[in-house]
Structures are given as C-alpha cells and as structure tokens.
Specification:
- The protein is of the alpha+beta class.
- It folds into two domains: 78 residues, no CATH class; 62 residues, no CATH class.
- It contains seven helices and five strands.
- The strands form two sheets. The protein has a three-stranded antiparallel β-sheet with strand order 3-4-5.
- A hairpin with a 6-residue loop joins β4 and β5.
Length: 147
C-alpha cells in the first residue's frame, strides 16, 4: 500500500490520487485518463506493456520512496507548496477568513493563529502552527530539499 506516500506527496503540494483495491486494468485506465504517473509496488502491473508512465516503488522506507518518486518523476518540491492540498482528500485548499475559521477550530487555535485554509471537499480546516516546520524537518532528515 502506498497511502502514506500519497499523503506525503500531498503535503508537498502534489496532486496525488490514491486508489485502494482497484483492478490493475482500472488503475491503468484511471492514470491514463487523468494524465497521472502511476505509482505501484506491483511488479506484474509495472511489467504490463501498455501501462504508461509509472514508477515501480522499490523500498518499504517512506523517505526512500519519496526520494525515488521525486527523482524519477522529476518533481521539484518547494517550501511554498507545503500544505496546499488536503492530506485526506487531495483537493487544493482555499484560504478562509479568520471569523469563519475561528468558529470551527478549538479556542486556543483561534487565539493563537491568524491564517486558515479549508478543504472545499471535506471541510477540514488547516492552520500553520508547527506542522510545516515539522514536515520540513522530516523531509531534511530524509534528504529531500524543498528549497
């Protein structure tokens, strides 16, 4: 399963769809139809003749997986892209005004944060706090430069 890898690609700001328990042919058609690079651990799937652009993920280690995808897909992660997508449903986040967000977050968060983003699909609210810095620290530990 590559769900955690998909979440981290989303954290980096990349559109990363995740489909569990789909038939191989359906995955290939979806990736092709949506213009995606298919990420897989399935060697038989990767060996299919008409698979299209894909990356056969070699490692169980998340840092190694991210480095492999970034390298093979020629991604250029940037600090500005971090936390611009919902990690749950992959939609691009939209900024919401303080008053609207303050009613939806814990009082401490409303008292200590000024900027908020919301997922237009699932409604999840995001705020900077320490999340971006922790993500950046983890990325540096994995040897991933985000500029």
């Amino acid at each position: 399963m590559l769900g955690t890898l998909a979440r981290w690609l989303r954290i980096l700001g990349y559109d990363a769809a995740y489909a569990r328990e789909r038939e191989p042919g359906e995955l290939i058609e979806r990736a092709r139809g949506e213009g995606r690079i298919l990420l897989t651990r399935d060697r038989r799937l990767a060996a299919r003749r008409k698979i299209g652009p894909h990356v056969l993920i070699a490692s169980d280690d998340l840092g190694a997986q991210l480095r492999q995808v970034i390298g093979e897909a020629r991604l250029e992660p940037r600090r500005e892209g971090i936390f611009r997508r919902c990690v749950e449903c992959n939609r691009a986040l939209v900024e919401v005004d303080y008053e609207q967000a303050a009613a939806l977050v814990p009082p401490y968060v409303a008292a200590t944060q000024e900027r908020f983003h919301r997922c237009p699909s699932c409604g999840r609210i995001y705020w900077p706090a320490t999340h971006p810095e922790r993500a950046l620290r983890r990325l540096r530990e994995w040897g991933i430069d985000v500029g």
